[in-house]
Amino acid sequence: MKKEAKILLDKTKRTLNDPLKMRIAGNEIKNVLMTVFKYVILIGVSYVIIAPVIGMFVNSIKSDADAFNPMVFVLPQHPTLEKYKLAILRLDYWKTAAKSIGYTAGLTVVQLLVCSMVGYGFARFDFPFKKLLFGCVVVTIIIPSHTVMLPLYMTFRSIDPFGIGKLLTGTPGLNGTVIPMYIMTLLGCGLRSGLFIYIFNQFFRGLPKEIEEAAFVDGAGMFYTYMRIMLVNAMPAVITVTVFSIVWQFNDVFFAKLFLIPDSTAISKRIASLQGIIANEDQILSLTLQELYRDAGALLVITPVAIIYLILQKNFIEGVERSGIVG
After folding, report:
1. End-to-end CA distance of the chain, in Å?
2. What secondary structure does DSSP assign to 179-223, as a single string?
3. What is the mean pLDDT of residues 163-178?
4. What is the per-residue pLDDT across 201-221, written as a single tens digit (0 to 9) for each?
């Protein structure tokens, strides 16, 4: 035993006397500490993000007895899905979610086409006032939507081409329909369109011009080159914009309320009134119980978006990296 301890001591002394081995040992210790630090930060950030969702789920499966039981802290003693059943009924969930997904998908397709065209134009063509116009695009990213809400509302309240608004809502103007959102998106000033134009511009600038030149030599026109070659090569950016657009359009409440879009079309707007509906229809007046139903409804609303993100997660992350989005 003494002999083994002496051998170990001699080995340690040799290691300490060897500068190269000391440097290697120091680097190994540094790597271990950095790995531990990274995991601590990652776990901490993940907890901050996931904890509210976990809390909502736990609340949504609580029974009425669990809600008023001070001994229940994390896991309910009598879990139940009754909150989900009533939330589905009062939200008219399946019908409203289908309409909301269709409305969101339509806006997303229009936004992809318009923003990709504009981004491609800024990246590949020279024209008068190009820098000024691109500066205006950047400004739309910076300026809050609340600063232009009154002009937008007044504009769409006063215009009613062919009497469409009166035909659909019974009152003149386009407010009360989804048409204002489609008009804004089609003109490149929809929800976060400035950011999407910037993403496409950055991506197209990174693609080699030889791709287009080869297409032009083969006789391809400008539109064909854009649709069949450039847009296909920009698929990471397309997926990135698709995910962002779906999430923001589906969860949008600001424009839905501003343009008085029906609750049956914008499920994000209907969730805000769920507590009031349950209080009036089911005579559940306890705020504690109302919050449980609200949490169940909120989880139902975010489920479609979460599924879409999980499906496109790998491509989405790749697109974010290649598009140069930081911060």
Report:
1. 58
2. HHHHHHHHTT-STTHHHHHHHHHHHHHHS-THHHHHHHHTT--HH
3. 75
4. 988 888 888 877 787 777 777
Which CATH architecture does the domain made up of 82-323 adopt?
Answer: Orthogonal Bundle (1.10)
Token digits of residue 225: 């080159």
Neighbours of 10 (CB within 10 A): 10
Please state, in angstroms and rounded to a whole number, the distance separating the CA atoms of residues 165 and 160.
6
Structure tokens, 63: 């029974």
> What does the pLDDT read at residue 327?
42
- What radius of gyration, in Å, describes the C-alpha atoms of the chain? 28
- Whose CA is closest to 99, among 243, 256, 273, 292? 256
CA nearest neighbour of 321 among 214, 236, 221:
236
AA identity, residue 118: V
For residue 128, how far is the Cα from the chain centroid? 34
Are 207 and 230 within 8 A, CB to CB? yes
CA distance 65 to 46: 31
Q: Are 63 and 79 spatial neighbours (Cβ–Cβ below 8 Å)?
A: yes
Of residues 303 and 3, the one with the higher pLDDT is 303
Answer yes or no: are the C-beta atoms of 56 and 299 closer than 8 Å. Answer: yes
3-state secondary structure of 240: helix
Tell me how far apart the 2 most distant CA atoms of the chain are, in Å. 101
